[in-house]
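> forwarded from #structure-qc
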């Protein structure tokens, strides 16, 4: 299993999707990625669960599919913006 983390312990915020073309994929091996994203509170409220997971996927990776998604609120940058650590298994289509 490969794990890629694009955040430091100090909650470095990922400002653009990770370019999955730069990741190494081995056949038959799971590849996981994680990052901390800024999500406006309105984006959470305005979407159902599936649309919210799609939003997290689009913000975390540039292409492919994210499965086994886990997310946790780890802080806030202002009163309307949540910091969410997102992780999941990357599958390149």
């Amino acid at each position: 299993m490969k794990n890629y983390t694009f955040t430091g312990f100090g909650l470095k915020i990922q400002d653009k999707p990770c370019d999955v073309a730069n990741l190494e994929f081995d056949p038959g091996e799971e590849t996981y990625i994680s990052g901390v994203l800024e999500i406006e509170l309105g984006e959470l409220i305005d979407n159902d669960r599936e649309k919210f997971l799609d939003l997290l996927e689009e913000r975390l990776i540039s292409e492919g599919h994210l499965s086994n998604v886990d997310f946790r609120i780890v802080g806030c940058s202002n009163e309307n913006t949540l910091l969410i650590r997102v992780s999941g298994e990357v599958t390149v289509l």
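QC bot note: Residues 49-60 form the longest helix (12 residues). The mean pLDDT is 84.
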